[in-house]
C-alpha cells in the first residue's frame, strides 16, 4: 500500500481505476506503467511528486491520500460485492430454471413413453376385440348359408393355358416347390453369369493395367544404378515371370483363388513400385527445386544459369518498365486535376514527345546524309585511287618490261621471279590484313556488288572511331604497300606467268581472308572478291 | 400432337387393354419433344389418327360413360372403343354404378366392380352375350381384382374378413383368411406365377405366398414389422420387398422361398417410408421417405448406394430447371368483365417452359406437423421403363417433379409447374414422362426437353389423371367427367412439325 501511495498521480487520482481495472483509461495505464517500472525505483518516482509531497509534509500527504482513497476503494468494494451477490443470485435462479426444465423434459419423455406403451397396449386390445368381432362376423356371415353369395355364369370358360385344372395333391405341392426352386436357381444362375462376366471384364482390365504398368516400369530396370539401391529389381523379375504365366488366355477362365491372388499380388507389387517411383520422381523434383540443377540428366547447370540470368534480366527490365509506368502514373496523378485537363495534358505530353522525336529524327536524317556524303567521297577517293593505281601499274609494267628486256636471259629471270614470289608470300603473312583491306578498297572499282558491304561497314564504323582509324591506317598501309605488292602481283599478269605462280597467289588470297575476317559476310565478300580478282586476272 | 374429341366419363375409369403388353412393337424412335418444344400450343382439333396399327397392341379401350339421358331407370354402361379410331366396339350395361374397372391380362374379359351392391360383373369381348355376375352378399365387397391368368377373380370382403377366389373355369371357390387391410397387401409376380399376401393374425404380421395356378400356399412366414404397410415383388419375381408403416422406417427383403435376405433402416424416431418402387430391371429399390429423401438399395448387397435429397434450392449448373411460365395473353383480348362465353379456353392462359437460371428456389409448403399425414416427404416415385431415370415428387414441394439420372446417380432436371402435380406416369416404351396438374394442360418431359400442351376444346378440360397406351403412342387424359386421347405418333408429328408449321400440335 505504501508503494502505491508513492506512485499514484495525485491529480488524476487513479487509484480506484487501478484497483478496479475494469475501465482502462490512459491515465490508469500510465499509472500501471509507472508502477511496474518504478516499484524498485520508488525513490526516483518520489522525486517527481515532490511538488505535492515534500520531505516535510510526507506524513500529512500520506494520511490525506490514505483517507481519500480508502474511502473510494471501500465504496467500490461495496458496489462490487453487491453486484457479485446479484449475479450469484441470478445464477442460482438460472440453475433452478434449468433443473426445472430438465425435470420437465424428463417428465414429458416419461409421459410420451408411457403413452406409447399405453397406446400400443390399447391398440393390441382393440385389435384383439376387432379380431373377435371379425371372427364373429365371419361366423355369422359366412357360416349361415347365404344364398346370395354366388356366381352366376353363362358357361364356364376354358383356362388361359388351355389345360385342364388339376387336383390338389401332395404331388402338386412337391411340384410347386420344385418349380419355385427352379425359378430361384435360374435367377441365381443368371446373376452368377452376370457377375462372372463382370469379373472377367474386371480381370481383363486388371491384366491390361498390369501389362501397361510393367511396360511403363521396365525401362527403369535397365538403369541399374537407379534400381540397385532397392529391392524392386527382384520384384520386377518376379512380376515378369508372373506376367508370362498370366498372359495366357486360359488363366482368365480359372477363377480360383490362386490366380486371383497372383493377379492381385502382382498388381499390388507393381503399384508399389509405381508409387515408389512416382514418389522418387517427386523427391527429385523437390530436390531440384531446392538445390538447383545438379542432376545432369535433367537440365545442365549452364542452361539453368543462363536461363536464370535471362530471367533476371527480364525481371530487371520488367521492373524498370514498372518503374517508368509508375512514374508516368504518378505524373498523371499529380497532374490529374480533372479529366479534361489530364487528357489534354496527356496529349501535350504526347505532342511534346512527338516533337522531340521529330527533332531527333531530323537530326538522325542529317547525320545519315552526312554519312552518305562521306561515304560517297570515300568511294570516289577509292575509285580515284584505283585509277591512279592502274596508271601506276601500267607505268610500272612498262618499266619492268624495259628492265626485263634489258636482262640477259629470259629463262633465268623467270625462275628467279618465282623464287622471289615465294619468298614474298612467306614474309607477307603479317601483311595479309592490309592486303585484305586493300582488296576492299579495290572493290568498288572491281566489283560493284561488293561495294554495299563496304559502305555498310563504313557507315557502321563511322560513329565508332576505332574502326575508322583502322580503316585509315589500313588505307595508308595499303597505299604504302601497294607498290611492292603490285610488283609481285602484277608480274604474272603482265608477263603471262606459268600456272604455278598464279595458283600460289590464289591460295594466298583465300588464306588471307581468314585471319582478317571476323564476320562471315565479310570473309565471303572477300572470297568473292578474290575469285573475281582471279577471273579478272585471266581476262587480259 | 393430335387430340381426339372429348367423351363422357365417370369416376376417372378409363383403361387401355393390356394386350400386346409384352410385344415389342416399334423401334424406339427418339422423342421429338425437344424439336416441337417451341411449337405453339394446339389451337385446333385435327381429328383422329386413322392409320391402322399393326398388331393387337392396346386394341381396345374400355371407357365407362354415364348415359344420363335415360331418366326412367338408371342404366350404367360400359363402353368399349377402338383405341385408335375411338369407334364404339361394344356396349355393356351393368346393374349399378361401376366403381372399379379392370381388364383381364389376356384382354378377353372386363371386370366391373359395383362395391355399393357387393357385386362384380364380368364381360367378354369375344362373346358379347356371355356374362358373369358374382354376388358377395352380406359379406360386402371392398376390392376386386383379376388373377394374372385372367380366369380367377379375387374379391376382398368388407372388414377384410377374407378374400374369395372365384374361378371362371370351374365352380371352385377358394378362401383366404386374415388378409391385412393396408396400403398394398396383395402383389402378383410379373410372370403371374405367385401371389404374395399380407396377413395379420394375433397382432402380428405375416406374408403368405400362393401359387396362382392352384392357389396352394407355398410359404407362410411372419415379418419383423410393427405394422406392415405394403409388399411388392421385384419385377423378376424372386425378391419381395416388405415395408413397415410410416411410424417406423423399415424395409425387409425376402426371397421367394421365405428367407430374409436383408433389412434396411435409414433412421429411427421419425416418420418413415412413404413410397417404394422397384426398377424394371430389379436392380434397384427406391424408397421415398418423410425426411424428403429417396434412398436406393442395390440388389447385390441390398445396401444403400445413394441418397437423393430434394432441396428447395437448386444451385448446380448441371441441373436443368424447367419453370412453367404463363404466356400472358395479349392485352387486347382482355375485356372487363370477361364475357361468359369466353370463360373457357380464353381464361386458361397458355404456358411454356423456361429454363431457370441458377440458383433456383422452389416453392415449398410449410407442413402442418401437428396434423396427421403431413404433406412432407417423397410421396410418389417411378422408374422409367429403360431404368435410366427416376421421377419423384416431394410433397412439401408440391409443384415440382424431380428427374434423376440413374446411370450417373444424380439429379438431372427439375420441372416446376404452376400448380400442384396431380399425377405423373412414364411412357411404356420410351423414357417420356407425362405430368398433369389438374389444369387444362398436359406436360411431357423427355431427355431432349419438355413441353407444355394445351388440351383443346370448349370449356376447361381439367386433366386430373392420365394413362398411357401400351404402345406409348397415345395418352388418355381424364377429367372429372370427360376424357380425350392425345396422339403422340412421332414420325407423323415430326413430319408435320417440319412441313406445316404450327399445325403439328
Describe the structure in brief.
The complex is a heterodimer of chains A (540) and B (505). Chain A has 540 residues and is mostly helical.
Walk me through the structure.
- The complex is a heterodimer of chains A (540) and B (505).
- Helices cover 82% and strands 1% of the residues of chain A.
- By secondary structure, chain A is mainly α.
- The model of chain A is unreliable at 1-45, 223-247 and 415-540 (pLDDT under 50).
- By secondary structure, chain B is mostly beta strands.
- Chain B is 2% helix and 43% strand.
- Chain B contains 1 helix and 41 strands.
- In chain B, a hairpin with a 4-residue loop joins strand 21 and strand 22 (260-264).
- Chain B is globular.
- Residues 20-57, 64-75, 337-347 and 492-505 of chain B have low confidence and may be disordered.
- The chains are: A mainly alpha (540), B mainly beta (505).
Amino acid at each position: 500500500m505504501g508503494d502505491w501511495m508513492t506512485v499514484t498521480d495525485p491529480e488524476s487520482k487513479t487509484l480506484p481505476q487501478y484497483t478496479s481495472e475494469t475501465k482502462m483509461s490512459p491515465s490508469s495505464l500510465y499509472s500501471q506503467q509507472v508502477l511496474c517500472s518504478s516499484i524498485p525505483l520508488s525513490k526516483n518516482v518520489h522525486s517527481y511528486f515532490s511538488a505535492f509531497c515534500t520531505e516535510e509534509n510526507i506524513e500529512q500527504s500520506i494520511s490525506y491520500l490514505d483517507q481519500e482513497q480508502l474511502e473510494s476503494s471501500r465504496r467500490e468494494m461495496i458496489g462490487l460485492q453487491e453486484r457479485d451477490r446479484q449475479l450469484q443470485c441470478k445464477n442460482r435462479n438460472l440453475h433452478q430454471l434449468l433443473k426445472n426444465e430438465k425435470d420437465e423434459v424428463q417428465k414429458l419423455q416419461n409421459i410420451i413413453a408411457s403413452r406409447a406403451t399405453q397406446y400400443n397396449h390399447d391398440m393390441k386390445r382393440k385389435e384383439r376385440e376387432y379380431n373377435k368381432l371379425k371372427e364373429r362376423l365371419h361366423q355369422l356371415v359366412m357360416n349361415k348359408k347365404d344364398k346370395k353369395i354366388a356366381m352366376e355364369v353363362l358357361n364356364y370358360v376354358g383356362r388361359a393355358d388351355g389345360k385342364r385344372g388339376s387336383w390338389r395333391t401332395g404331388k402338386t405341392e412337391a411340384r410347386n416347390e420344385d418349380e419355385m426352386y427352379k425359378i430361384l436357381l435360374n435367377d441365381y444362375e443368371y446373376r452368377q453369369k452376370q457377375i462372372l462376366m463382370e469379373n472377367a471384364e474386371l480381370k481383363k482390365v486388371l491384366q491390361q493395367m498390369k501389362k501397361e504398368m510393367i511396360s511403363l516400369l521396365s525401362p527403369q530396370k535397365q538403369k541399374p544404378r537407379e534400381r540397385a539401391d532397392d529391392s524392386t529389381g527382384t520384384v520386377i523379375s518376379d512380376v515378369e515371370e508372373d506376367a508370362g504365366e498370366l498372359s495366357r488366355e486360359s488363366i482368365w477362365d480359372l477363377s480360383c483363388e490362386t490366380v486371383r491372388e497372383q493377379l492381385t499380388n502382382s498388381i499390388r507389387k507393381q503399384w508399389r513400385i509405381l508409387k515408389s517411383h512416382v514418389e522418387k520422381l517427386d523427391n527429385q523434383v523437390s530436390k531440384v527445386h531446392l538445390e538447383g540443377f545438379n542432376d545432369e540428366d535433367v537440365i545442365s547447370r549452364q542452361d539453368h544459369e543462363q536461363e536464370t540470368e535471362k530471367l533476371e534480366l527480364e525481371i530487371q527490365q520488367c521492373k524498370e518498365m514498372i518503374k517508368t509506368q509508375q512514374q508516368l502514373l504518378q505524373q498523371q496523378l499529380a497532374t490529374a486535376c480533372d479529366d479534361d485537363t489530364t487528357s489534354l495534358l496527356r496529349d501535350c505530353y504526347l505532342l511534346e514527345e512527338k516533337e522531340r522525336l521529330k527533332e531527333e529524327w531530323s537530326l538522325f536524317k542529317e547525320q545519315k546524309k552526312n554519312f552518305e556524303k562521306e561515304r560517297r567521297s570515300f568511294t570516289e577517293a577509292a575509285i580515284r585511287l584505283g585509277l591512279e593505281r592502274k596508271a601506276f601499274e601500267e607505268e610500272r609494267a612498262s618499266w619492268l618490261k624495259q628492265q626485263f628486256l634489258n636482262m640477259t636471259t629470259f629463262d633465268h629471270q623467270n625462275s628467279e621471279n618465282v623464287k622471289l614470289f615465294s619468298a614474298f608470300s612467306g614474309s607477307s603473312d603479317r601483311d595479309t590484313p592490309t592486303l585484305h583491306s586493300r582488296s576492299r578498297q579495290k572493290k568498288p572499282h572491281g566489283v560493284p556488288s561488293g561495294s554495299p558491304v563496304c559502305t555498310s561497314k563504313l557507315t557502321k564504323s563511322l560513329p565508332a572511331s576505332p574502326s575508322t582509324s583502322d580503316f585509315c591506317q589500313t588505307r595508308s598501309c595499303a597505299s604504302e604497300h601497294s607498290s611492292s605488292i603490285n610488283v609481285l602481283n602484277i608480274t604474272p599478269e603482265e608477263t603471262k606467268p606459268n600456272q604455278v605462280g598464279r595458283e600460289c597467289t590464289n591460295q594466298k588470297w583465300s588464306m588471307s581472308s581468314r585471319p582478317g575476317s571476323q564476320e562471315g559476310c565479310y570473309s565471303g565478300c572477300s572470297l568473292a572478291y578474290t575469285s573475281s580478282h582471279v577471273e579478272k586476272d585471266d581476262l587480259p | 400432337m393430335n387430340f381426339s374429341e372429348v367423351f363422357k366419363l365417370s369416376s376417372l375409369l378409363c383403361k387401355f387393354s393390356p394386350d400386346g403388353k409384352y410385344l415389342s412393337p416399334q423401334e424406339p424412335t427418339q422423342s421429338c419433344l425437344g424439336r416441337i418444344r417451341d411449337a405453339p400450343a394446339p389451337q385446333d382439333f385435327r381429328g383422329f389418327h386413322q392409320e391402322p396399327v399393326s398388331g393387337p397392341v392396346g386394341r381396345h379401350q374400355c371407357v365407362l360413360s354415364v348415359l344420363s339421358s335415360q331418366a326412367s331407370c338408371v342404366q350404367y354402361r360400359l363402353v368399349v372403343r377402338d383405341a385408335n379410331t375411338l369407334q364404339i366396339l361394344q356396349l355393356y350395361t351393368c346393374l349399378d354404378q361401376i366403381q372399379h374397372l379392370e381388364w383381364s391380362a389376356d384382354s378377353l374379359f372386363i371386370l366391373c366392380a359395383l362395391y355399393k351392391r357387393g357385386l362384380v360383373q364380368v364381360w367378354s369381348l369375344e362373346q358379347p352375350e356371355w356374362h358373369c355376375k358374382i354376388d358377395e352378399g352380406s359379406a360386402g365387397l371392398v376390392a376386386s381384382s383379376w388373377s394374372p391368368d385372367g380366369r380367377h377373380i379375387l374379391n376382398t370382403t368388407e372388414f377384410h374378413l377374407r378374400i374369395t377366389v372365384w374361378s371362371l373355369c370351374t365352380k371352385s371357390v377358394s378362401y383366404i383368411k386374415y388378409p391385412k387391410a393396408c396400403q398394398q397387401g396383395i402383389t402378383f409376380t410379373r410372370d403371374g406365377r405367385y401371389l404374395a399376401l399380407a396377413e395379420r393374425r394375433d397382432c402380428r404380421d405375416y406374408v403368405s405366398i400362393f401359387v396362382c395356378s392352384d392357389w396352394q400356399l407355398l410359404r407362410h412366414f411372419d415379418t419383423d414389422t410393427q405394422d406392415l404397410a405394403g409388399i411388392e415383388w421385384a419385377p423378376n419375381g424372386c425378391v419381395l420387398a416388405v415395408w413397415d408403416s410410416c411410424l417406423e422406417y423399415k424395409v425387409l427383403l425376402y426371397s421367394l422361398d421365405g428367407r430374409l435376405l436383408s433389412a434396411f433402416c435409414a433412421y429411427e424416431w421419425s416418420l418413415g417410408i412413404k413410397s417404394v418402387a422397384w426398377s424394371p430391371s430389379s436392380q434397384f429399390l427406391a424408397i421415398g421417405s418423410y425426411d424428403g429423401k429417396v434412398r436406393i438399395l442395390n440388389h447385390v448387397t441390398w445396401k444403400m448406394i445413394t441418397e437423393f435429397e430434394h432441396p428447395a434450392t437448386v444451385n448446380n449448373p448441371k441441373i436443368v430447371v424447367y419453370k412453367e411460365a404463363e404466356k400472358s395473353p395479349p392485352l387486347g383480348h382482355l375485356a372487363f368483365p370477361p364475357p361468359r362465353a369466353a370463360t373457357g379456353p380464353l381464361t386458361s392462359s397458355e404456358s411454356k417452359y423456361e429454363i431457370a437460371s441458377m440458383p433456383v428456389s422452389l416453392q415449398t409448403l410449410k407442413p402442418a406437423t401437428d396434423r396427421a399425414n403431413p404433406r412432407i416427404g417423397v410421396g410418389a416415385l417411378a422408374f422409367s421403363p429403360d431404368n435410366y431415370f427416376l421421377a419423384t415428387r416431394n410433397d412439401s414441394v408440391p409443384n415440382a417433379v424431380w428427374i434423376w439420372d440413374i446411370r450417373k446417380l444424380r439429379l438431372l432436371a427439375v420441372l416446376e409447374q404452376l400448380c400442384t402435380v396431380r399425377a405423373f406416369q412414364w411412357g411404356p416404351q420410351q423414357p417420356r414422362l407425362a405430368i398433369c396438374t389438374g389444369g387444362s394442360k398436359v406436360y411431357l418431359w423427355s431427355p431432349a426437353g419438355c413441353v407444355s400442351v394445351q388440351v383443346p376444346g370448349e370449356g376447361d378440360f381439367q386433366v386430373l389423371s392420365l394413362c398411357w397406351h401400351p404402345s406409348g403412342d397415345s395418352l388418355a387424359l381424364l377429367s372429372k367427367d370427360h376424357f380425350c386421347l392425345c396422339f403422340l405418333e412421332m414420325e407423323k408429328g415430326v413430319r408435320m412439325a417440319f412441313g406445316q408449321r404450327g399445325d403439328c400440335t
